[in-house]
Amino acid sequence: MISNFFVKISAALIIICANACAQTEIQIVRIPGGTFIRGSNDGEDDERPVRAITVSGFSMMVKEVTEMQYKKCVDAGKCPATHYRDGKCLQWTGREFRGVVVPKEFRGPNLPVVCVTWQHARAYCASVGMKLPTEAQWEYAALGGAQSSRFSWGNSVPDKSRCAMGAPHQVALFAPNGYGLYDMTGNVWEWTADFYDRDSYSYPQDTDPKGPESALYRTIRGGGWYSGVSELRIQNRHWFSPNFAETSLGFRCVR
Fold first, then answer.
1. How far apart are the first and last CA of the chain?
2. Tag placement on the chain: N or C end, fewer CB within 10 Å?
3. How far is it, in rounded angstroms, from Cα 112 to Cα 125?
């Protein structure tokens, strides 16, 4: 009886460990190098001029980094704590950004981690031997091998059957793009390595561009769960202070 009890307990612990390991496991896909058409003539001024850009091959996380994955880094002493509960996580009210305490229903181990600054994101990527993607890497990967696409699934207008809208969703809930990457449109904005400059597309960089050497803001891409259709476009560029965190801003890493 006792031995059977311990066998059952051991089996249960193995299952729990296996589930936890699966949730914290990092999945990576190889993105082949190539040339794509960066930017859009139908978007904002900072998306022009449209031009052919060549990107060397790289590897990218299949999913956005989750709360559970980031917590593992914090627990190991390699990442600073998030700003979910200290009032330092910003949210746009429609008129201004305000610090909020994120409610429980907007949190979960398999939801993308948010309320992290650019420095938080960089620290996590470094802890797993990776780094944040450049803008060019991000846009090239988001296209999924297509030469022209407004969203990660094609040109159809976003709705709740295609991406997270109205509230954050667990990662990989919707269909991946052509490279097998999830949530490249919507769910949360993603930090990139590049400083933001509205005129950086005019720089004479046609191969592996890295943007300006310094600026006030870092570029974010992909749109978030409360973004409008225009912001959800692959070509859309936005920016945020690297010293602040926001409720719809997370990240993924490359190497």
1. 52
2. N
3. 14
Identity of the amino acid at 17: C
What does R_g of the chain's alpha carbons equal in angstroms?
A: 19
User: CATH assignment of 28-250?
Assistant: 3.90.1580.10
Instruction: Tell whether pTM > 0.85.
Output: yes
Contact 218, 196 (CB under 8 A): yes
Long-range contacts of 162-169 (CB under 8 A, 24+ apart): 162/186, 163/187, 163/232, 164/225, 165/225, 165/226, 166/225, 166/226, 167/105, 167/106, 167/225, 168/106, 168/111, 168/112, 168/114, 168/225, 168/248, 169/111, 169/225
Q: What is the pLDDT of residues 186-195, one digit of tens each?
A: 999 999 999 9
* Domain ranges across the chain: 28-250
Short-list 84, 75, 90, 91, CA closest to 105:
84
pLDDT in tens, 46-104: 999 999 999 999 999 999 999 999 999 999 999 999 999 999 999 999 999 999 999 99
Q: 238-240 and 218-221 as β-strands: parallel, antiparallel, unpaired?
A: antiparallel
- Annotate 178-241 with DSSP letters as a single string: TTS---SSSSSEEEEEEEP-TTGGGSS--BS----S--S-EEEES--TT--HHHHSTT--EEE-
The two tokens of residue 252 are: 């993924």
DSSP letters of 79-136? SPPPSSSSS-EEEE-SSSEEEEPPPGGG--TTSBP-S--HHHHHHHHHHTT-BPPPHH
Helix/strand/coil for 18 = helix
